[in-house]
């Protein structure tokens, strides 16, 4: 849910630009990323490298991550599509940005709460009361942790030290008691580092099992350029389907597209995504948005006071968010 969690340790560098369209008549399309190139974006890279976008008549450019959020770039018309975290999209839409979600990459929550396995004082979320949390400064962290502790019968009180990506080293050194991580990235890195850590799933303790990794566009774009949107999304779906079917080969394509100091982390991440069934959930088409889970997470964030207006005041639940996502392109 939290951008700073999604790619910890600063291991990824800005992506290398890859030309994908050869026809002069190809329609240029830009995609703003939520962070430096990583396994969340694997289907976009596959669609480039395998020529799926070119076959659809598109010349797709993945814009390198910048300090400006993809939601802001998208809302300002500086990009045609944006790859956003769940929190990033819902925050932007709740605050009035005319964005619509077209896609969900991860079919289940990849985030989790982690602690050192040899810390015998922690066996359940209720034990986190009074402990020290290494945080990232994200708006949803307290809602996640408090909900989990409360759901397990504990008192939601803890001390937070904001460490950013240093949280993982601090936890490994025993300087803090727990933190949050993404199982398919930080979790893989911890295994590679030989760390012995245990975890609690958010969904086991009161937090909705959300989907994540939304691809969004402006509602105006969807209305005015439905053919382009459908072509881009279908080629993107083809890329992620190929990645789900060929995770090892997809990892190699991703490695070829960027500058990754630790190839084992990329390969391990794709293996974890495959083993966890994150891209493909049974017979459900890759990229499908589940309206019930979409609404459940939105309501959780509204009710928790995470979603705020420009003045910092918590927003009220609108009662219906079905118009916030649109997957008509799948059925066309």
UniProtKB/TrEMBL annotation:
GO terms for biological process: thiamine biosynthetic process. It catalyses: N(6)-(pyridoxal phosphate)-L-lysyl-[4-amino-5-hydroxymethyl-2-methylpyrimidine phosphate synthase] + L-histidyl-[4-amino-5-hydroxymethyl-2-methylpyrimidine phosphate synthase] + 2 Fe(3+) + 4 H2O = L-lysyl-[4-amino-5-hydroxymethyl-2-methylpyrimidine phosphate synthase] + (2S)-2-amino-5-hydroxy-4-oxopentanoyl-[4-amino-5-hydroxymethyl-2-methylpyrimidine phosphate synthase] + 4-amino-2-methyl-5-(phosphooxymethyl)pyrimidine + 3-oxopropanoate + 2 Fe(2+) + 2 H(+). Residues 1-23 form the signal peptide. One of its GO terms (molecular function) is transferase activity. Pathway: Cofactor biosynthesis; thiamine diphosphate biosynthesis. InterPro entries: NMT1/THI5, SsuA/THI5. Keywords: Iron, Metal-binding, Pyridoxal phosphate, Signal, Thiamine biosynthesis, Transferase. It comes from the Bacteria. Residues 38-250 form the SsuA/THI5-like domain. Pfam families: NMT1. Homodimer. Responsible for the formation of the pyrimidine heterocycle in the thiamine biosynthesis pathway. Catalyzes the formation of hydroxymethylpyrimidine phosphate (HMP-P) from histidine and pyridoxal phosphate (PLP). The protein uses PLP and the active site histidine to form HMP-P, generating an inactive enzyme. The enzyme can only undergo a single turnover, which suggests it is a suicide enzyme. Belongs to the NMT1/THI5 family. This is Thiamine pyrimidine synthase.
């Amino acid at each position: 849910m939290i951008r700073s969690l999604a790619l910890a340790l600063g291991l990824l560098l800005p992506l290398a630009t890859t030309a994908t369209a050869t026809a002069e008549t190809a329609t240029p399309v830009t995609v703003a990323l939520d962070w430096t190139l990583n396994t969340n974006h694997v289907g976009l890279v596959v669609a480039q490298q395998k020529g799926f976008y070119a076959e659809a008549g598109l010349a797709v450019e993945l814009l390198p991550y910048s300090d400006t959020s993809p939601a802001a770039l998208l809302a300002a018309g500086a990009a045609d599509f944006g790859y956003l975290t769940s929190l990033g999209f819902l925050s932007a839409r709740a605050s009035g940005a005319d964005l619509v979600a077209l896609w969900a990459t991860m079919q289940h929550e990849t985030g989790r709460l982690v602690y050192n396995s040899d810390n015998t004082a922690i066996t359940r979320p209720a034990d986190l009361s009074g402990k020290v949390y290494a945080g990232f400064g994200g708006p949803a962290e307290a809602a996640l942790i408090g909900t989990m502790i409360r759901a397990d019968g504990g008192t939601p009180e803890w001390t937070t030290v904001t460490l950013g990506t240093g949280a993982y080293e601090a936890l490994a050194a025993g300087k803090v008691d727990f933190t949050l991580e993404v199982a398919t990235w930080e979790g893989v890195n911890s295994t590679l580092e030989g760390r012995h850590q245990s975890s609690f799933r958010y969904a086991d303790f009161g937090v909705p099992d959300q989907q994540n990794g939304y691809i969004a566009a402006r509602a105006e774009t969807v209305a005015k350029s439905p053919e382009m949107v459908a072509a881009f999304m279908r080629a993107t779906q083809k890329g992620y389907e190929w990645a789900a079917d060929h995770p090892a080969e997809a990892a190699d394509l991703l490695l070829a597209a960027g500058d990754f100091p630790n190839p084992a982390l990329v390969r391990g991440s794709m293996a974890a995504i495959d083993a966890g069934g994150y891209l493909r959930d049974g017979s459900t088409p890759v990229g499908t948005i589940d309206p019930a889970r979409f609404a459940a997470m939105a309501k959780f964030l509204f009710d928790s006071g995470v979603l705020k207006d420009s003045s910092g005041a918590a927003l009220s639940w609108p009662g219906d968010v079905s118009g916030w996502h649109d997957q008509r392109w799948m059925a066309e």
